[in-house]
Amino acid sequence: MPIQSAWSVFYANTEQKEKEMNYNELLSPEMQETLKQAGYETPTPIQEQSLEILLKNRDLIGIAQTGTGKTAAFAVPIIEQVDTENRKPQALILCPTRELALQTTSVFKKLSPHKKMRTVPIYGGQSPNVQIQALRGGAQVIVGTPGRVKDLIGQNALKLNNIRFVVLDEADEMLDFGFLPDIKWILGKVTGAHQMMLFSATMSKDIASIAQSYLKNPETVEVGERNEPTKTVQQMSINTPDGTKLTTVAYIMKQTAPRLTLIFCNTRHRVKSVTKKLNASGMATACLHGDLTQNQRNNIMRDFRAGKTPVLVATDVAARGIDVDNIDLVINYDVPDKPEYYVHRIGRTGRAGHSGLACTLVSEDDIPRLKTIKRQYNVLMN
């Protein structure tokens, strides 16, 4: 059964229906109609619980796993409040990867056809001149990666003096990429009164520090249990000697018949090797790693989403920002080096309340890392 829209969650009792009405009553009729036309029928918990707070211009910390509708949670209130008469940047959304920046831009465009506003993505891998030209054409919403945003501010091509909304999206992932110095530099350039929103899947000490420094008396909306893997994913581990992992992968896929499968390895060398061997076995497989150009990445992701290449092998860094709803199976070919990577990996399946399966292949060398993950996240595996 195809994974449905993140908004297609129907409540079963009167109290929940009243909450839905309250949510809609906060929105303009135009936005209500846009959501309906776009197939967004019912808000997810993170959306429902954060809307009124954000419309009251309160700073907010939103903690929720991947696939729970965080992007629409901040996009809807920002779109509602953007001044279309002012063509200068009013909202700045910082994302850890270009893929996520492009996906976030797509959500803003999908939810704003009723308003005469522009959303422009800026990220590495595309000519800065193209992005500078887009900014000169006027844009109320800027979605970008920290490095490129900093570069364009430095070139005086992007000015933040009219910014009213700032979002740090997937803040935990940005810190994994070492973006904290750039983030602090960028936030230092936002001089006017503005609303801050920080969205994250986990709440580390570094993220808490950002919240203390840049958010003013923030409200916190937390969906699910903090720092724990999503409960919509069945998790299992399989003791597998390193030399037989490929055979185990083939067995798992034969038994589960997934639509799309995402396989994680710890190094790009391992990614390339596993991809080559899976293709040689007759399994249509592509890979994501740091050596690819943006065009190559775009083509690979297009074919993966369409199911033309139903198996994708990736490193943790290369997979950041992947937002594909119908991934049924995640395989940890290697146990991740960092425990928090486990949360991000398995969050690529079981999205929007639907079930998914995550299999971790465990060789003898992997056992200590797996024990750390189980202890830190209280993970129970079959």
Q: Would you identify the CATH architecture of the largest domain?
A: 3-Layer(aba) Sandwich
Number of domains: 2
Measured distance between first and last alpha carbons:
24 Å
How many extended strands? 13
H-E order: HHHEHEHEHEHEHHEHEEHEHEHEHEHEH
Instruction: Specify the number of helices.
Output: 16
Provide the CATH superfamily of the largest domain. P-loop containing nucleotide triphosphate hydrolases
Strand content: 15-25%
Structural class: alpha/beta
Query: What name does CATH use for the topology of the largest domain?
Result: Rossmann fold
Largest sheet: 7 strands, parallel
Structural description of this entry:
This protein has 382 residues and is an alpha/beta fold. It has 2 domains: 209 residues, Rossmann fold, CATH 3.40.50; 145 residues, Rossmann fold, CATH 3.40.50. A 7-stranded parallel β-sheet has the order 3-4-2-5-6-1-7, with helices on both faces. Helix 7 crosses helix 9. 46% of the residues are buried.
